């Protein structure tokens, strides 16, 4: 009979520990995904910004040597990520593919211009900086026009600022929710041992002595939950990097190290704080209040 009871108690204890570890792992995994998003917000914003193209249209009388010099100077400029020459023939072919018919058959000539498409570095994609760059390029006598989508650039910058702000707000909210969820799981675990806590207290054990094994046990559970979350997070990062290679997540090990360290430390810290508060609550309860 006693052995059966011991086995029942052991299964109950294992089940309790499993639920705590699983709760911690799931919450930290979701928090890690959000942290990954926060840490890569600028990279994703930069990726979209660098898709903006400034088109430098050249006059028909522009000499090839002038075109080559301009392309080289633009390619070497601090603000340029890529400078590509597009001939009027290439432009006509792309435009015909886009509209589904050869417009030159209708017009009888090619009205398009030779151009150099400039993709800017993300730090230079703002209405003021692009305007300054465009004005500097337009001063050259063989440049017909410098064209770019002004409304799109303004909209992109405004949306990036809004999204960054909301991601930070969401991170703060989810961190608080994570603390509440992990705290609830650990509190239930400690609640099941409230009578043991009170019995130890009644025979003269100090609060620190009683708290110590509970805190250490739940810290180990927190570490285990954090390790499981980190394994899941590593799988998620691998999947994201495989499907979105432009993010190049593995090229910045420092950020990934910071993320994994943060998840682990958070698991340990929340487990410690939650256990301390839970045991303190039951230590301060009267014996009659333990039944409610």
Polypeptide structure, described:
The structure is a single chain. The chain is an alpha+beta fold and 292 residues long. It contains 10 helices and 4 strands. The chain folds into 2 domains: 2-45 and 157-291, no CATH class; 53-148, 2-Layer Sandwich (Alpha-Beta Plaits). Strands 2-3-1-4 form a 4-stranded antiparallel β-sheet. Helix 1 packs across helix 9 (207-243). The model has no long low-confidence stretch (mean pLDDT 79).
How much helix, percentage-wise, in residues? over 70%
| Total of domains | 2
Strand order of the largest sheet: 2-3-1-4
Please report the total strand number as a whole number.
Answer: 4
**Tally of contiguous helical segments:** 10
Low-confidence stretches: none
Work out the radius of gyration: 31 Å
Structural class: alpha+beta
Rounded to the nearest angstrom, the distance between the terminal CA atoms is 30 Å
Q: Indicate the multimeric state.
A: single chain
**What characterizes the major β-sheet?**
4 strands, antiparallel
β-strand percent reads: 5-15%
Q: Globular, elongated, flat, extended or rod-shaped: what is the shape?
A: rod-shaped
Q: Give average pLDDT, whole number.
A: 79
H/E element order: HHEHEHHEHEHHHH
